[in-house]
Write a structure and sequence with these properties.
about 40% helix; about 20% strand; Arc Repressor Mutant, subunit A; 3 domains; glutaminyl-tRNA synthase (glutamine-hydrolyzing) activity; 14 strands; ligase; 9-stranded mixed beta sheet; 17 helices; 3-stranded antiparallel beta sheet; Asn/Gln-tRNA_Trfase_suB/E_cat; alpha+beta; elongated; about 500 residues
């Protein structure tokens, strides 16, 4: 691993090299049962309790394809503008990994279910088209746990354990064509693509696409070449498991490869591992070619021939896709491209939409989700949607502000209480006695005390300088712990001194 001090700067790299990126994304489908057997796909079960002779590859067991998984894959292909094959079949991909009990993976090779599509993404106000080479269906592997080493990887471990619960879960692989020409934006384009792809798949309801649980995983391919030269040798960073890490892994590999090339070295075609703590990649294994896998047609499964009429029905029933939906919402909310980009970048589209549906205004929903709540999410290191506050609670909070029950300042205190699990905003305001004091009788004494404590300011107001009232209003707000109605206080101050 090269130290950061030996690496060139990012600006230097993009001034001398052109990156070519490619992304292979694996999506675990949310089917009730596995791809070729009836075992449960529920996440979190005790190790090796969701297995049977088929997914363990025991002799004499025969697979049966999951029809729901085939339909979900076709819907993904249609949403990605792919051509759906009229005839295709499964193949055996042969290799030895301890977490693949059959010693081969049932996948697709030269005849995928969906191919030649595209997905448009927005980056810095520009539309970038990412061409899709193929979308194919296969089964997932099991999960290995390496014990006794410092890194959690097999090197240095004293023993390895295997959980086959995940083996056989339907897995869709979405492979892009090489994406040249992104230049300095390559890391952002990679992240934008995976983000948009996740949103598309989530909109279809075929997977929860939770990267932290492994139901969405991304392999990031990258090569560098000098302008006018052929594309370089690519590396493949495996199983990157967050949107932020997709971006970081592209940037890290660009710096590493440039350093190797600058020193006169050659890039190896290999898999690499991304380290969340350092943001760097380390070597895994040399990358096999298709020939090394010894593909051959799966003899135990019949070919698939989706009925074109059925495919047309699936296409007609597709939901509104995220990009179309964002354009509609932007028009409905009456906001600019820049404002909508801020909403998208914060991951707040659904949250704001739900807040509006619960009775909040577009402006108020954006104010809270992009302001106070985004700040708290950043401080906690979580996604905005993971905060312990619902869109309905945000709408209720704003309703209290609009009704004059609380101020924006008090609302921030209420948010803190909601996040701490104290209940809904109205209940918190009531229980803590946070409601704004607007009764003139209760405020008069506080106003008189503020006037008495600031005679010079009071004299200015008597002379017609009403702008000076802010000092007295601030004093009253402090005395009432921010619960006084500022408008009422101002009226009282002016009335007492006029």
């Amino acid at each position: 691993m090269m130290s950061t001090s030996t690496l060139p700067s990012y600006d230097d790299v993009v001034s001398r090299y052109e990156p070519v990126i490619g992304l292979e994304t694996h999506v675990e489908l949310g089917t009730r049962t596995k791809m070729f057997c009836g075992c449960s796909t529920e996440f979190g079960g005790e190790p090796n309790t969701q297995v049977c002779p088929v997914c363990l590859g025991l002799p004499g067991s025969l697979p049966v394809a999951n029809a729901a998984a085939i339909e979900a894959t076709i819907r993904i292909g249609l949403a990605l503008n792919c051509t759906i094959a009229e005839w295709c079949r499964f193949a055996r991909k042969n290799y030895f990994y301890p977490d693949m009990p059959k010693n081969f993976q049932t996948s697709q090779y030269d005849e995928p279910l969906c191919e030649n599509g595209y997905l448009d993404v927005e980056v810095n106000g520009e539309t970038v088209r990412i061409e899709i080479e193929r979308v194919h269906l296969e089964e997932d592997t099991g999960k290995s746990l390496h014990v006794g080493g410092a890194t959690g990887r097999i090197h240095g471990a004293t023993e390895s354990l295997v959980d086959y619960n995940r083996a056989g879960i339907p897995l869709v692989e979405i492979v892009t064509k090489p994406v040249p020409g992104t230049g300095v934006l390559a890391p952002e384009v990679a992240r934008a693509y995976v983000t948009e792809l996740r949103d598309v798949i989530r909109s279809l309801g075929v997977s929860d696409v939770r990267m932290e649980q492994g139901s969405l995983r991304c392999d990031v391919n990258l090569s560098l070449n000098k302008p006018g030269e052929e594309w370089g040798t690519r590396s493949e960073t495996k199983n990157v498991n967050s949107l932020r890490s997709v971006e970081r892994s592209v940037r890290s590999e660009m710096l590493r490869q440039a350093s190797v090339l600058d020193a006169g070295g050659s890039i190896l075609q290999e898999t690499r591992h991304f380290h969340e703590d350092t943001g760097e990649t380390t070597s895994g294994r040399s990358k096999e070619t298709a020939t090394d896998y010894r593909y051959f047609p799966e003899p135990d499964l019949t070919p698939m021939a989706p009925d074109p009429a059925w495919v047309a029905e699936l296409k007609a029933a597709l939901p509104e896709l995220p990009r179309v939906r964002r354009l509609r919402l932007q028009a409905d909310w009456g906001i600019s491209d820049f404002e909508m980009a801020s909403v998208v970048n914060a991951g707040a589209v659904e949250l704001i939409e739900a807040t509006i549906a619960a009775g909040g205004s577009s402006e108020a929903a954006r104010k809270w989700w992009l302001g106070e709540l985004s700040r708290r999410a950043n401080e906690s290191g979580v996604e905005l949607g993971e905060l312990a506050i619902t869109p309905a609670q945000v709408a209720e909070l704003q309703s209290l502000v609009d009704g004059g029950k609380i101020t924006d300042k008090i609302a921030r205190t209420v948010i803190e209480a909601v996040l701490a699990g104290e209940g809904d905003p109205a209940a918190i305001v009531s229980a803590r006695g946070l409601e704004v004091v607007s009764d003139t009788g209760a405020l008069t004494a506080a106003v008189d005390e503020a006037i008495a404590a600031n005679p010079d300011v009071a004299e200015k107001i008597r002379g017609g300088n009403h702008a000076a009232a802010g000092v007295l209003i601030g004093a009253v707000m402090k005395a009432t712990k921010g619960q006084a109605d500022a408008k009422t206080v101002r009226e009282l101050v002016i009335a007492r001194l006029s």
